[in-house]
Amino acid sequence: MKVLKTAGLALALVMTAGTQAGAKGDWAHYGSDSGDTKYAPLDQINANTIKRLKVAWRAPAIDPAFRVANPQAKLSNNFRNAPIVVDGVMYMSNQIGQVEARDPASGKVIWRQANFAGDPPAISGNAARAVAIWGKGEQSRIVTVRGNYLYLLDARTGAFLPEFGDKGRVDLRRDPKTFFSWGAPAPIVVGDVIVIGGQPIATGVADINKASLAGNIRGFDVRTGKPLWTFNTVPQEGEPGTETWEHDSWRQGGKTKVWSGFSADEQLGYVYVPLSAPPSDYDGRGRPGDNLYSDSLVALDAKTGKKVWHFQTVHHDLWDYDLPTPPMLADIKVNGRLRKAAIQVTKTAFVFAFDRATGEPLFPIEERRVPQSTMAGEKTSPTQPVPMKPAPFDRQGMGEDQLIDFTPALRAEAKEIMSHYVVGEMYTPPSVAGGADGKLGTLYMPGWVGGVNWTGAALDPQTGVIYIPSVSVPWISRYNYRRPPESSLYMEGPQGLPLIKPPYGRITAIDMNSGDHLWMVPNGDGPRDHPALKGLNVPPLGQAGRAAPLLTKSFLFMGEGDMVGLSIPKLSGGNMFRAYDKKTGKVAWETDLGAGTTAPPISYMHKGKQYIVVGIGGVDHPAELVALSLD
Predict the structure, then answer these.
(1) Is omega for the bond preceding 293 within 30 degrees of 0, making it cis?
(2) CA torsion angle for 390, 391, 394, 395 (degrees, to 10)?
(3) I need a labelling partner for 377 at 20 to 30 A (CA). Which of 157, 274, 338, 575 fits?
(4) Rounded to whole angstroms, how far apart are CA atoms 234 and 252?
């Protein structure tokens, strides 16, 4: 292994674990490669050319012919799809979840997925976050999920493959009384096996926590659609782990699903599964115990579905601390030893790093004591796992030291607002609103938005440095839970400002060879032009939008997340799209896209030109793809 020394910092040259990113300038997976690095090894857009970066084309997020034929269709502008680009063709999931093939040079539609024979006309739905591709040349196939079904399409024409399942599709429901819920980026194909998560939901029941069955992971033959295996995310009778659901509560266990996608090491044949919280998000009285495999990173053998290893990042979750994104895979040098790493960023602002072959932590992890619940019947875990390195990349816990302090008046108002809630260190349990103490619940941070959310982080396989966009957003947890009117305390603090200090959205660079932080910068201006801050000359405060990163050889590219009405927290996104210097975090270039970014950006080469493409949208801005290239 060659080692570069730059500015006194030794950086090990590392490799991605899965399919090589951009071997031909392609973007072949949701996160560029099967290791979910979000890295494109392209540098036509570099420090010498970045000033020439301009909009090359814009295209609606659905075939214009659909709009002409269906003017009554109501389409969501919250378009979260990241296209893939393979062999000179772009494939995407449109605003109603149909696959479209497009020209990467113009965004023009080549073909659109047809209605399945016998189905009613498709005029509604939502975009999948991505599609997957398998095979080469004339045997290339597109794998996608829409509604209750898994489809296999001919990549050249979009035609259904009749030998797959029932005339081209597989019904993912367990029985007709359920429907299939799938919000993750895409199935992943490892070898000849399609791996899919998702969650069956009982129809006619409003409470998803009570209605959901466990989100088991399944493997299907990519050629025939034949079911190959199932991994129970809530252990069943006779399986290890049932003891973590005390009083046989595993029999009612639900959720514990993958909603964020997968990564895979194709050489090992392993797929990495980031699992969600169990039901109910803020009440664990009906499920005493640690509740495996909730909030766990699980490595499965993709051929058999057998568990290789797992690590639970939160025991007995009471905060909705799902694993929000797949682990990034790369080979890094830790303490002088080359390791096959799986790097998991979290809502809690911790980074967990493991040997992806064995599950051995690459940095020590300690079980540390945490606050305990006083709620009758609640059995809080006495400890939670804390990695010793890297240090947290965002703030943890809630107290006076976190409150806004631009002026004494703003701070006094913030203290008064906070006085109505139970606060404390991270993992302070939910409390009862309207109880004897008069409190309105527990105010905790990071909230369920993160930290990190589904947009994830990015990893540079040439240096082992990860770049993490995160937000600082408190939330409220309480046993008599409802989504409360005061729940977005990001923008409903003193005089409409956030309750806490900035930055509200940030980017942190961490060298995973050492576990050391390199730099942190706010992502965008945030509310620095708020009337209450007039005359204070405040620096950039950071947008709390859920922004997604893109890495190239030259830059880190990132937007600010979507704007009013689409974002959580509200009023948190922005229209700007920027290139950051990877060594310093300084802004090298920026442009206003006209709306906030709703989807992860991608980059690819097509006919000798490097493109950057990202989905945008807003309440009054129809969803579209914007492509940037050099003029």
Answers:
(1) yes
(2) 160
(3) 274
(4) 9
- Give 290-313 pLDDT, tens digit per residue: 999 999 999 999 999 999 999 999
Helices (H) and strands (E) in the chain, counts: 3, 41
Reduced to 3 states (helix: H, G, I; strand: E, B; else coil), residue 194 is strand
Distance CA 549, CA 467 (A): 8
What would the pLDDT profile of 570-581 be if each residue is shown by its tens digit? 657 899 999 999
Average pLDDT over every residue of 335-342 = 93
Q: Are 53 and 45 in contact (CB under 8 A)?
A: yes
φ, ψ of residue 35 in degrees (nearest 5)? -85, 0
- The CA distance from 610 to 589, in Å, is 16
Tokens of 481: 């839970």
The 8 Å CB, 24+ separation contacts for 132-136 are 132/29, 132/30, 132/84, 132/186, 132/187, 132/188, 132/189, 132/194, 133/28, 133/84, 133/86, 133/91, 133/189, 134/189, 134/192, 134/194, 134/222
DSSP assignment of 67-118, as one string?
HHH-TT----S------EEETTEEEEE-TTS-EEEE-TTT--EEEEPPPPTT
The whole-model pTM stands at 0.94
Distance between CA atoms of residues 391 and 457, nearest Å: 16
208-243 pLDDT, tens digit per residue, is 444 457 789 999 999 999 999 999 999 999 999 999
